[in-house]
Amino acid sequence: MGNPVTENPLETRSDVQRAVRQLVAPLEAHHSPGGALVRVGAAGASFPNHEAGIEGYARSLWGLATLAAGGGEFDGWERYRAGLVNGTDPDHPEYWGTIADGRQKVVEGSCLGMALGLVPERLWEPLDEAERERVQTWLTAANGEWIPDNNWRFFRVLANVGLSSVGASFDRQQVATDLDRLETFALENGWYADGPDAPVDYYCAWTMHVEGLLYAWLAEDDAERAARFRRRAVEFASEYRHLFEPSGRAVPYGRSLTYRFAQAAFWGALALVGRDADLPWGEIRGLWLRNLRWWFDQPIFAADGTLTVGYRYPSQKMTERYNSPSSPYWAFRAFLPLIADADHPFWTAEERPLPELDRQRPIEAADLLVRRGPDHVVAFTGDTATPRYRNKYDKFAYSSHFGFGVDDGIAGLDACGIDSTLVVSTDGEHFRGRTADLDGSVDDGVAASTWDPFDDVTVRTKVLPVGPWHVRIHQLEAARAIETAEGGFALPTTEERYADDVRETTEGQMAAVSFEDFSGLRAVGGGNRCEPAVTTPVPNTNVQHPRTAVPVLSRSFEPGSYRFASAVLGVPGTASPTAWTEPPTVEWTWSGVTVGDGEGETVQTVSLEQK
Predict the structure, then answer these.
(1) Is there a contact between 495 and 501 (Cβ–Cβ < 8 Å)?
(2) Does pLDDT of 269 surpass 50?
(3) Residue 444 — left, alpha, or beta (φ > 0 → left; ψ -120 to 50 → alpha)?
(4) Average pLDDT over residues 39-55
(5) What is the torsion angle, in degrees rounded to the nearest 10, for the CA atoms of residue 242, residue 329, residue 89 and residue 145?
(6) How many helices and strands, by DSSP H and E, does the chain display?
(7) CB of 412 closer than 8 Å to CB of 321
(8) Residue 48: what pLDDT?
(9) Contacts of 430 (CB under 8 A, 6+ apart)
(10) Cα–Cα distance between 150 and 181 in angstroms, integer?
(11) Where's the DUF2264 domain (predicted)?
(12) Distance CA 471, CA 339 (A)
């Protein structure tokens, strides 16, 4: 069972057009009688189930509207058109309700605006005057209302611009106000923050840039702003690509990861920059297609072919409160290049692999330090500002292969998201990890942070990549007795070898797990005695792998000042621990910490003071 898209080669434009139809086909069984709602599951979100049905209807339009705009065939437009008419009719049983309450419907209004702008002949022109007036009334009801001061402003922009595209009444001043505010979120090198004092993550790619480029495509009287959106997108491309493996797999980092192949949406949206743009079209097309292929090769589909909630596999444990069963269809914005004609260079250029990229690259706007291997990308974090999303921004490292685990909300080391972080406890049962309220930075090849797990406990950490390893240097100030536990990368295990039969080695001050891949960490540079162990986190808490094992070093401290360090190694595709025989060295000096490569060469001297 599943979805036939898994057999689609995804090589040509017609392959991708067929992929849209393959992904939409399973939704037919989930349409409401009036067509206004698409419900693909019964799980709840922070908004009513009725609004989840609107999500299913509206988000699928990202695939269908782009398909039709580029000349692709779909025989279900009558049902979608009926859904639009019925959903905006207050007298119909499937009426969506007013959009003016600042809730989830504001988001879905952007999908409708996009579709009106791209395929008016399918959704607008067949309507009579009364039906058009109701659609216009529904979409403009959010104007002047409160909405979150972040990427949501683009949603209101697209709703208005869609109406403008079909000659309907809209609020021009509201559009200008929202766009002006969005531009204040722009950072260097084409990046955007998702609002004031907000994190910088994939929303920059799959919302800020995607919707900015779509606005530039649809807007006919805002050439100067459209040019800025296009210029920023081109600048952003040179850094965004560092988060992707040659295989197409990307680093999972941050929230909303259930949107999955929305990761590819930016690469597809670049087709809207313009056919004459001086871009490496073959490289861009390759990044886009390889990401889609990787995703369609993962177990992300239910038995009936619909998308599940989760990341690489179905799991509710890694989701956010605003994720309904219909939410994953936000990924359909990845199909934007279907708008472009077949003779666009996006389609005519030969697909090319990623070029040789820098082994190490700071992404200053996002406070990330990216380290690349042949088949493994790791992003080390500096500063974050995301208190709601523990584990999704505040780990030391985020790996394209090993993924990351989340807190399961229960007591115990196996439930606190121990991988790639340091946690602190006063009772050995309840652990506090790095908070999202960090004072951090990425500078000179070092990711630094200061955090307070308790009012009288402060931890300063500096993370330094050294070859395939990374070294974590910790300075601890504690006015109470505490225990710490530090985890390496979460190694995937199979069902048969999940708990009792995982091969592990523990010796002195090191812990390692080896099974198809290798993960280990060891104490370096002297310091406090530690206890090595391997823990098996609660199943389904890792975004990449249902079952994992994590090597851990535990330490105990009386009140006082301490410094200690660990060297961490994660190697995909090798079950041999021999790669671990020459760890980095750490020597404490008056000037700071001198880190060597394990072969006698000094890599860097790192000050213990925070800048």
Answers:
(1) no
(2) yes
(3) left
(4) 86
(5) -30
(6) 15, 21
(7) no
(8) 79
(9) 411
(10) 9
(11) 12-353, 390-580
(12) 47
d(CA 64, CA 61): 5
Whole-number Cα distances in Å, 250 to 149, 242, 469, 497, 524: 28, 9, 20, 27, 31
Decide if pLDDT at 500 tops 50: no
Q: Which domains does the chain have, with CATH numbers?
A: 4-348 (1.50.10.10), 360-582 (2.70.98)
Q: How do beta strands 548-557 and 530-535 pair?
A: antiparallel
* Exposed/middle/buried for residue 402 (C-beta within 10 Å: 0-12, 13-18, 19+): buried
Question: What does the alpha-carbon distance between residue 461 and residue 595 come to, in Å, rounded to a whole number?
Answer: 14
The H-assigned helical ranges of 141-209 are 152-165, 172-183, 203
Give yes or no for a contact between 109 and 156, defined as CB atoms under 8 angstroms apart: yes
Q: What is the DSSP string of 20-39?
A: HHHHHGGGGGGB-TTSS-B-
- What are the backbone dihedrals phi and psi of residue 233, each rounded to the nearest 5 degrees, phi first? -65, -40
Q: Which two tokens stand for residue 538?
A: 């609660």
pTM of the model: 0.95
pLDDT at 387: 62
- Token pair in block for residue 478: 């504690």
CA-derived radius of gyration, the chain: 25
Distances (CA, A) of 366 to 345, 388, 404: 30, 18, 18
Task: Quote the CA–CA distance of 520 and 403 in Å, as a whole number.
Answer: 15
Section 47-68 average pLDDT: 93
User: What per-residue confidence (pLDDT) applies to 499?
Assistant: 46
Beta-carbon contacts of 601 under 8 Å, excluding residues fewer than 6 positions away, are: none
Q: Which tokens go with 519?
A: 């993960």
